[in-house]
């Protein structure tokens, strides 16, 4: 379902792209990477028909008329996201210090593990098999973490 009240960064919608590497299936060996935050170029408006304020991927953001000027502002390292949330939301929202690296990261890992466990029976159990999955997470204004989408970024070897 669409998250109508996402947490906004400087008035812009964002998501976090994280990665799950299935490095081996015989035996299973899985790694997690935190990834980065992706922001829209324009300010969020639920009523807007402009997809560039709703979808954060770069393919969509390139369609925004100011993309070339704002491109560098549409990707934040996790350290920047953590600092921003500490500064803007820690006290008013009662977040623990470094929420990005503690609560949020742990929640992403839990969700990705559940996705892996749900699909592991469909994976080929052979040497040389691997997969790289990209998972997109949204945070709503109540700091609830939702998985938005997953993408298979690799082909089995």
UniProtKB/TrEMBL annotation:
InterPro entries: TTL/TTLL_fam, TTLL10
Name of the protein in its database record: TTL10 polyglycylase
Transmembrane helix listed as a keyword: yes
Alphabetical list of PROSITE patterns matching this protein: TTL
Keyword set, alphabetical order: Membrane, Transmembrane, Transmembrane helix
GO MF annotation terms: protein-glycine ligase activity, elongating
Gene name for this UniProt entry: Ttll10_0
Transmembrane parts of this sequence: 20-37
């Amino acid at each position: 379902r669409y998250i109508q009240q996402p947490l906004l960064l400087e008035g812009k919608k964002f998501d976090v792209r994280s990665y799950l590497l299935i490095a081996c299936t015989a035996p299973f060996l899985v790694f997690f990477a935190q990834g980065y935050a992706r922001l829209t170029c324009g300010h969020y408006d639920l009523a807007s028909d402009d997809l560039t304020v709703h979808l954060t991927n770069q393919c969509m953001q390139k369609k925004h008329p100011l993309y070339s000027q704002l491109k560098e502002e549409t990707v934040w390292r996790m350290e920047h996201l953590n600092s921003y949330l500490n500064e803007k939301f820690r006290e008013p929202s009662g977040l623990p210090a470094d929420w990005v690296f503690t609560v949020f990261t742990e929640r992403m890992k839990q969700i990705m593990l559940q996705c892996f466990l749900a699909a592991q029976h469909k994976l080929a159990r052979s040497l040389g098999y691997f997969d790289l999955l990209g998972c997109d997470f949204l945070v709503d204004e109540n700091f609830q973490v939702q998985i938005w989408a997953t993408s298979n970024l690799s082909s089995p070897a």
